[in-house]
Specification:
Blueprint: H1 2-6, H2 13-47, H3 51-77, H4 81-99, H5 102-105, H6 108-140, H7 146-174, H8 179-199, H9 215-220, H10 231-234, H11 244-272, H12 277-296, H13 298-317, H14 320-326, H15 331-358, H16 365-394, H17 396-417
Helix pairs in contact: 2-6, 2-7, 2-8, 2-11, 2-12, 3-6, 3-16, 4-6, 4-8, 6-16, 7-8, 7-12, 7-15, 11-16, 11-17, 12-15, 13-15, 13-17, 14-15, 14-17, 16-17
Length: about 425
């Protein structure tokens, strides 16, 4: 399998270095995700965090993204994209190291608010990293290879996430609290550092041949950063006058339906199902096992129906996870939801970014992707705060069911208007 992943004979030699480093980047990111990121909300819940505080862990980062997304887009336009992505990844991922000593410095409540403040800091470099990586991926991977590279990256993410999640769950069940979490956070930081090392070696290819910008584009894009631009031009409001607006709006609906539910999962698993860390780790391993299986079929499915259709149907299918979770009473119900959710996410995660890139002008990627980043983080901010608030009124079971229905509607919107 590894031979097929890293020595693919059908890939031109000039692309192989980028592809290999993108694969290793995602593999190490899987180590980070399966350890520190995977158990952050669980750790916060065990510290006694409320739904609002868990929502804030995502919301404060989203606030930073909303503030800095457009400046980040302009900043990236003026710098080599590869170096910019590497250095923003370094400053962002240093934040994971700050999680490790928290139990030595603060009590439970102090740790919760320290995690929120660290997330606030991490949101600043993450803004430029999120915008820049999508632009770098588009420049480092030719369009006809993007589905293949995305699928392979998802396979590696699945494998490393599964292994790390199981190991982390085992460590947490066999090490005293909170030392087990400190070890898991240290594993995550190591994975984050190695991921950044491989991003350093990803290089943009020669620019794809493109027609010159249209007259409206030339009027709104200032090529001389020393000359002040009107605020409308600086914000690139002209993008909302193009067809790109439809793609931004349907993806807003998708991410909103996604993030309304996310803060509720860890609370339901810990407070309602009373699952152990080992059980939660096994469930996330099942999620990524199913994601691995789905990712192996991603390229064929994309070739058959395209990125847009796969994104739309996949988002609708994501409704199954919160709905099954809502009616779970035993651990095996959670395992079933994880298997279903992992397979569906393999489709969505491998398709929606490429769907967006297909409709992003090649000659103006940073500004367009900056607006997508604004839309994404607006959904994260609102969803992370509104989800727990709605659950407090309706009850967590009703809220998860309703948010599942919203995912179906979001998927239909992508198919109809995307």
């Amino acid at each position: 399998m590894l031979k097929n992943l890293f020595h693919q004979a059908d890939i031109p030699a000039e692309y192989r270095s980028n592809f290999i480093h993108l694969y290793f980047d995602m593999g190490w990111f899987g180590v980070l995700s399966g350890s520190a990121v995977n158990f952050l909300n669980v750790y916060a819940a065990r510290l006694g965090a409320t739904g609002l505080q868990i929502g804030l862990l995502a919301a404060v980062s989203a606030v930073m993204n909303l503030i800095f997304a457009m400046p980040a887009g302009r900043w990236l336009e003026q710098r080599p994209i590869g170096k910019a992505v590497f250095w923003t990844s370094v400053f962002y991922r240093l934040g994971f190291a700050l999680w490790i000593p928290l139990p030595w410095l603060f009590g439970n409540e102090g740790q919760i608010w320290a995690l929120i403040l660290i997330a606030l800091y991490m949101g600043i470099p993450l803004t430029a990293l999120a915008v820049g990586f999508n632009a770098l991926f588009a420049e480092a991977v030719p369009i006809n290879y993007r589905a293949q590279v995305a699928g392979t990256r998802n396979i590696l993410l699945s494998v490393t996430f599964m292994l790390t999640s199981i190991i982390s769950g085992y460590l947490l069940d066999h090490l005293a609290f909170p030392m087990g979490y400190q070890v898991v956070f240290a594993i995550g930081f190591f994975g984050a550092a190695m991921s950044s090392v491989h991003l350093f070696f990803v290089r943009p290819l020669n620019k794809e041949a493109t027609p010159p910008p249209s007259i409206p584009q030339l009027a709104t894009v200032n090529k001389n950063p020393s000359i002040p631009r009107p605020w409308q031009a600086a914000l690139r409001l002209d993008i909302w006058q193009t067809e790109y607006r439809n793609h931004l709006l349907v993806l807003l609906g998708f991410h909103l339906s996604q993030y309304l539910a996310i803060p509720l999962f860890s609370i339901f698993l810990v407070d309602h199902l009373h699952l152990s860390d080992d059980t939660i780790g096994l469930g996330t391993a099942f999620f990524y096992l199913a994601m691995l299986i789905g990712s192996m079929r991603l390229r064929q499915i994309v070739n058959r129906i395209g990125h847009k259709a796969l994104t739309g149907w996949g988002v609708a299918g994501m409704a199954l996870y919160p709905i099954v979770i809502a009616f779970s009473t035993q651990a095996w119900h959670y395992y079933v939801a994880s298997l279903i959710g992992g397979f569906v996410w393999a489709m969505v995660g491998g398709a929606y970014a490429n769907y967006l890139l297909e409709h992003t002008p090649i000659n103006d990627r940073p500004s367009h992707l900056a607006w997508y980043n604004v839309v994404l983080n607006a959904a994260i901010l609102f969803g992370s705060l509104a989800g727990p608030a709605i659950a407090n009124v309706t009850g967590i079971v009703v809220a998860l069911f309703v948010f599942g229905i919203l995912r179906i509607l979001a998927g239909m919107a992508i198919l109809k208007w995307g």
